Amino acid sequence: MELNNIKDKIQVSAVKDSVKNQMFEFMTFVRTQGVVGLAIGIILGGAVTTVVKALIDDIINPIIGLVLNQAKNLTDMTWQVMGATIKYGDFINVLINFLVIAAVVYYGVKLLKLDRVDKKKE
Predict the structure, then answer these.
(1) Rg for the chain (alpha carbons), in Å?
(2) Please, which pLDDT band fits residue 90 given cuts at 50, 70 and 90?
(3) Which residue among 8, 67, 100, 122 is least crowded, i.e. fewest CB within 10 A of its CB?
């Protein structure tokens, strides 16, 4: 009976060591592969997207709507052609959204000098 108890303790110890080793390898992977930076980038990207969408929907679109003599929302601007609805206002909205987000990312990377992070030292 005592021999089985010793075997059980050895097996439990081996499992604990294996789990510790796997956790250490996982943490090393997270640190060396930049997973934390990627996660932070995704979170900040979502936040920037929300801010840019609000800027476009609440400020830029109404101004463009006024310039185009459309008091309604820019995304509601359409053409009716032979029964087909062409949503050019929605396309303009998506295009503006893309351009603003691209500019924010570009200047954010330049400002924080992140464009130099992945370059290898010569």
Answers:
(1) 28
(2) confident
(3) 122
**Whole-number average pLDDT of the chain:** 78
**What global pTM score does this model have?**
0.52
Question: 74, 61 in Cβ contact below 8 A?
Answer: yes
Count the domains in the chain: 2
Contact 76, 91 (CB under 8 A): no
Task: Extract the tokens encoding 113.
Answer: 């000098």
Q: Are residues 29 and 52 in the same domain?
A: no
Are 3 and 57 in a shared domain?
A: no
Which amino acid is present at 70?
Answer: Q
Helix or strand (DSSP H, E) at 112: none
Distance CA 88, CA 48 (A): 25
Query: Which residue range is the domain that position 16 belongs to?
Result: 1-33
